[in-house]
Amino acid sequence: MAKTKAKKITPLMQQYNGIKVKYPDAMLLFRVGDFYETFGEDAIKASEILGIILTKRGAGSESETALAGFPHHSLNTYLPKLVKAGLRVAICDQLEDPKMTKKIVKRGVTELVTPGVALNDDILQSKANNFLAAIHFGKKKLGISFLDVSTGEFLVAEGDSEYLDKLLQNFSPSEILVQKQHKQQFFELFPNTYHAFYLEDWIFQEDYGYESLSNHFRVKNLKGFGVEDLVHGVIAGGAIMYYLSQTQHKQLEHIQSISRIAEDRYVWMDRFTIKNLELYGGNSENSVSLLAVIDKTISPMGSRLLKRWLALPLKDLKAIQQRQEMVKFFIDQDSFLESVTYQLRQISDIERLISKVATGKVSPRETVLLKNSLQAILPIKDIAEKSKNIAVKGIGERINDCKNVIDRIAKTLYEDAPVHISKGNAIADGVSEELDALRAISNSGKEYLDAMLSRETERTGISSLKIAFNNVFGYYIEVRNTHKDKVPEEWIRKQTLVNAERYITEELKEYETKILGAEDKIQQLEAEIFSELIHYIINFVAPIQENAQLVAQIDCLLSFATLAIANNYVRPVVDMTTDIEIKNGRHPVIEKQLPIGEDYIANDVVLNRTQQQVIMITGPNMSGKSAILRQTALIVLLAQMGCYVPAQNARIGLVDKIFTRVGASDNISMGESTFMVEMNETASILNNISDRSLVLLDEIGRGTSTYDGISIAWAIAEYLHEHPTNAKTLFATHYHELNEMTTTFERIKNFNVSVKELDDSIIFLRKLVSGGSNHSFGIHVAKLAGMPSMVIRKANKILKQLEENHTQKEVKDTLKNVQSEDMQLSFFQLDDPLLEDLREEIVATNIDTLTPIEALMKLNEIKRMLVKK
């Protein structure tokens, strides 16, 4: 039997395969000469993502394989595209000079870049963190950690899946590390499209996580960081440290501490609320986020911190009032605001620059930017220290002057230092005597050659003599053929051209050795001096990071002041009551989108737990019900961030949770209907409310039939009213029958968004007024939307017939007769013998633990039995 001929593999491909097998989940960029090459499946992917030509290596031979590559100097152009496509990219470089070996060049992976572990400016967004997250699934709790390797921020937390879901929504990690055995569980709990990478189970161990973090921070325990008790969070943090070591990130001096996200310090918002309020991004293509409207920060550090403040509004009254005091100070002190604003514009992204220093990836030019930024902070420190505001003065006193770093960089580097140390002319004069001497030799070259040329021209009598240089044989003397008989005997001929001949001399070769040797030595010396400078700066990572954080705080508070001045915001009174009183409140986003000259219709909202706990808002679609709900939540949110608010005046009793059920968010891709999603979200609200909660419900029950919807909406409103927490609620609905609730429930009040009726149309006044509205104007809205007149006429006919045949009075009478007993609604009398069994079943049902979905199923079951009867 003939042996199968083995496929021939070249030494280069053998080397490639050996490295690729160590990084099976990554695209390998393999340096070959001046190119980064990809092979096989990697090449096919790279050509699609990068739009580069796909060719073949060894075409027609037994070793034929797909090939795609790009020039090595284009790495910063192509790498971001690969990472943004969600790929992990292993960069394999040549580890020795090809000229120094006759064998195949040594190669190895110098960096593994992933969506969550990147330091490349073209991958990162200056205004947003780039977090890598890790999740640990414990038996009762889940642990999570977040690390931005580009800034050194390291955070841990733990809680249930809902809490982690909220954190993921707020922190938007670029990549999440998950234990392999929990892959399915991760998909079920967090269905968002996160880039996930699965690690071996042994990495997620308590001892390993604790040891990893303790070793990194060089401490005996983690008590000093306040995370000692967060066992699951620490395990997740350990997984991140493991991943950094695996991705060749070993210089991590900028990760100086780890801190906990304390759940009890911040306002709770679930992911539905974050999405519904459009805090970071709109739900449609053209919508504008709250962040986009309120972000008046100047520095990248400030912008990132503002996003954090929006994600985690405060519950600490003292901290809120301290922020408010600083904002007031900035507004009142025009000169302070102007001076600090000017200085902030001179500051680069210090946080990321010092991280680049710590990881050895900073360039000379970036180091100069760091120096200039630290210098620009000094006037801010000076101004703040002289401030009469105690909090502002405290920030000024905490800013480090970093004069040693500033002076060292200024003395070491030229102000116009290059983007790479190999470009030369980075190190300033006077730093190194040896460097200065070598530069003198290098710079005197032209003068030396001119003198030699003049001397040899006079000696030989050849007027057209020329001295030049090429890479093949260095410096040479060129003589035209008409003068070659005058060439001295000691000159050595190196090349014959058509019209001339080229020669070298002993003197020229000695000079060449001296000059070229000087240039090589200059490059080596500059690299050494720059490396010493970077090692010096690393000693100041902590104070520079603190400066970045303090500047970010000032920037955020300055942003609040600028926002308030530009948009006529007022300082809200935030106190420990449970009341919310907003006079002429406005929606911060919508008012900025109005056409020029059109004023936003402001509205009053008063909510408390004693007289006006539930506001039932009726009115037609498009009238502005949803805007009033959202603006109330956003005003509360801004107030608890320490920001001023869009209102004439406002008093906000501290809120601990904000819940919203706004708009239909189908999750059909997960097999759930609009109504199921609505019920899931509402159930989550009802199961988590507290006495300081703010609940916003919009059109509950519209995903099912009218009577089902009315029943469920009524039951939910009653539940909120009767629940011992008395949670403050805004309830927008198109079920006008719910207006009857105010006659039975003392803390439910009716309001409507008014409209003006004309002959055959309506005008939306967008003003919230006391009392309920009678009908929904649905057909009028359809007409405004441009519905064909034939459809409008038909709809009016059908409506008239329905009103004649089945008045709403019947529904209202039924609802009026509903007895509020043990949170149950009885829509029919159970005195029929056929329903005795059903009576027993209902009596045996524990309503307190019944979810809205189970209630709906029970209701459908009753309906079927009645139909059969």
Written description of the protein model:
- By secondary structure, the chain is of the alpha/beta class.
- The protein has six domains: 11-113, DNA repair protein MutS, domain I (MutS, DNA mismatch repair protein, domain I, 3-Layer(aba) Sandwich), CATH 3.40.1170.10; 132-244 and 251-265, Nucleotidyltransferase, domain 5 (2-Layer Sandwich), CATH 3.30.420; 298-402 and 540-567, MutS, DNA mismatch repair protein, Chain A, domain 3, CATH 1.10.1420.10; 434-520, MutS, DNA mismatch repair protein, Chain A, domain 3 (Orthogonal Bundle); 573-777, P-loop containing nucleotide triphosphate hydrolases (Rossmann fold); 828-869.
- Helices cover 43% and strands 17% of the residues.
- The chain is built from 29 helices and 27 strands.
- The strands form five sheets. It has a seven-stranded mixed β-sheet with strand order 13-23-24-25-21-26-27, with helices on both faces. A six-stranded mixed β-sheet has the order 3-4-2-1-5-6, sandwiched between helices. A six-stranded mixed β-sheet has the order 11-10-7-8-9-12, sandwiched between helices.
- A hairpin with a 4-residue loop joins β26 and β27.
- α10 crosses α20 (541-567).
- It is elongated and about 125 Å long.
Oligomer: single chain
Tell me, briefly, the overall form.
elongated
> Could you name the CATH homologous superfamily of the largest domain?
P-loop containing nucleotide triphosphate hydrolases
Cα-atom Rg, whole angstroms? 36 Å
Key traits:
29 helices, 43% helix, alpha/beta, 869 residues, Nucleotidyltransferase, domain 5, elongated, MutS, DNA mismatch repair protein, domain I, 6 domains, 7-stranded mixed sheet, MutS, DNA mismatch repair protein, Chain A, domain 3, 27 strands
